[in-house]
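Much of our argument rests on the idea that a fold can be written as discrete symbols. This step matters because it turns folding into a mapping between discrete strings. The record that follows shows the chain in one-letter code together with its fold in token form.
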Amino acid sequence: MYAVQKEDLISQAQTGDTYAQGELVREWYPRIYNYAFKYFGDADLASEAAQQTFIAMHHKIGQLKECNKFKSWIYTIVTNICRQESRKGKRHKWLSFDQLLPKQEEESSPAWEISKQGESNPEQTYLQGELGEILTKCLQQLSKDQREVLIMKEYEGLKFREIADALKVSENTVKSRLYYAFSHMRKLLAKENITENSVRYEN
């Protein structure tokens, strides 16, 4: 029923209903902003990308042929905008690792995570903070293609089909990029002498 209501909202927005469009912005702004923030590591760039995304949504939503494809459609828009901004030479800023982890209330999905063992130990806490900075840099060093699928799948919780639709590629391509993203991450972490005992991949 909820899915039907959401599709009704999208249908209303397509007719130019400003209230419906406003509701879509209210519902989707946090996720679109978070995606752009992880992409750039910069709050100003993320805010700019999110604003441009919803301006584009306002002008183009009438072109959306299937309401149930809205999720992949909106991620197509924000990804294209992020790519355009990247081509302008905008620089990424390093994030604290906590800013990259999925929020507890978001859809559960796997994520790189620092081991919580020994959190009460001051030395261990310091080392975890240092590991977090290294993990952040490793994520930012992935190629554009690898970073996009990693953020969409592991942090935004999109399905392979939704990612494929958003990026206009096949599901096999998405899976391949994700595989190489994790492979690249492992190599980057190995160069920093980070072992499996320090980092775990959780479900």
